[in-house]
Design goal:
With 183 residues, this protein is mainly alpha-helical. The chain has two domains: 101 residues, RNA polymerase sigma factor, region 2, helix turn helix motif (Rna Polymerase Sigma Factor, Chain: A, Orthogonal Bundle); 74 residues, Winged helix-like DNA-binding domain superfamily/Winged helix DNA-binding domain (Arc Repressor Mutant, subunit A). Helix content is 77%, strand content 0%. α2 runs antiparallel to α3 and α8 packs across α10. The chain starts with a helix and ends with a helix.
Amino acid sequence: MTDQSTDLEAALADCAKGDRDGLKRIFDQEAGRLVAVAQRILRRRELAEEVVQESFIRIWTHSHQYSPGRGSARGWIYSIVRNRALNLLRDGRREDLVGDDQVEALQDSDQLDEIMAAWHTLDRNSRLHECLNGLEEIRRRGILMAYVGGYTHGEIAGKLRLPLGTAKSWIRRGLSSLRECMA
């Protein structure tokens, strides 16, 4: 376990005890990367910052629910941000996330390169990198598109030029393989 992981676990434990310094340490260490994750999903900085702010409130109020035996502190924190961002998309405000002036730019840019760059910057010694590396390339790409890029199954199927059912089953099987590998 790295020092940063231990620091995050200790900071969450401090939050659970009501120590605000724990939340500040989490913020100082992770806020920039959390905004980047939310922005990749939402594609708008101001919405990403809003999601991260809401996520820190949730981290503060629910820190007592974190259990080191169920996963890393970093994974727990990032899942809160990711889920908040995806919930914002699902709440029916998706059409407001990209302004008319940005549509062309988004269509021209290859967001898949950005998603794959996130994969390549993942710590090569981490268990997650090892488990993702064990997946077939197309399944790994589908999982990264869903969980890093925030793409829906339909969008993934379209980008990978696969039938929707195939994309769904590949992602489901890939996640199952990841769970087994991570356990």
